[in-house]
What we know:
Radius of gyration of chain B: 21 Å
Distance between the termini of chain B: 63 Å
Number of helices of chain A: 6
Structural class of chain B: mainly alpha
Distance between the termini of chain A: 74 Å
Largest sheet of chain B: none
Number of strands of chain A: 0
Number of domains of chain A: 1
Largest sheet of chain A: none
Helix content of chain A: over 70%
Helix content of chain B: over 70%
Oligomer: heterodimer
Strand content of chain A: under 5%
Radius of gyration of chain A: 18 Å
Strand content of chain B: under 5%
Number of helices of chain B: 8
Order of helices and strands of chain B: HHHHHHHH
Shape of chain A: globular
Number of domains of chain B: 1
Shape of chain B: flat
Structural class of chain A: mainly alpha
Amino acid sequence: MMTTPEKPTGIAAASLFAAALSLLTLAASHLLAGYSEAAKTWVHAWGKAWMPGAQGIGPYSGKETLMLVVWIGSWILLHRWLKKREVNLTLAGILFLAAIGVATTLLWPPVTEAVLHLVKPSP
Amino acid sequence: MPEPKRMENEGDTARPLGWMVGMLAVVGLIVSLGTAPLSGLLGESRYALEGALHGVSAGLFMVTATIGLFQGYRLLAGNIQRVAQLEFGAAVNAFLAFLTILFGNRIYIFYQAKGAPRTYFLENMPEIHKIFFEFKEFMALFTLPLAVTAAYLFWVYRDQILRSRPLRTVSAILLALTFFYFLVAFVLGAAITKLRSI
């Protein structure tokens, strides 16, 4: 009887890392938009480039767009790099959870404000 | 006592049930479209349809995300015999995550419009907007990569997942996180709607 060969775990790791990067990008773009008016305009421009109703949605449309671009782009690249490799999935899972934890924490508004307070130049 | 005969294919028994539910839904839809005051059910807002679609997709997503959480538990406990049992549900879960975000984007425009709930919250309860709404909108976005990645792993690895403890764990965690992040967004969304709907 023919058995199907086991698929490398690199495929799973690539998808996990891409998802983690997309969520970190979401958090980073939210911080960036809060940093200055110029940065907010730049983030919003990503949404306005393609999303219907982006003007009404505001910079949130750009944050969604950046998240999608990084998610799909990094998934393609990571998949090409890792698809034939065996990756320690336990370690990949831990890194994934850590990234999600960081992204969630950075998006919690009191933390976002505290970070921006630290990095923003004083007027 | 003779043992009851096992069904050879569970799909054969599920199909008539699916047809029956489908036919009842079609009949119900036709009757209600022709006779019921549906506009009253949706509300009088200009954005009632978009709001209803967002609510319906979120309601359905709550069902599939909850099933996903349970299936993740079964997967970890070793109670799943074939990953094919999970593939379709995980794909529907991912699709509903996408639809909920899509319709959510539409009503976000109305939420931010002049005189809309955002203005009301900023004038009367600024913390509600700054903390709960802003956080909710991001947590909702988390569900898409999580649900899509779970569905992708089932589709790529199939029954190999059953033989690999790390793959099983990662898949179950993805389903659990999808449920968790959606629950946060759903509860905050419901609370905000209760305070001030579009």
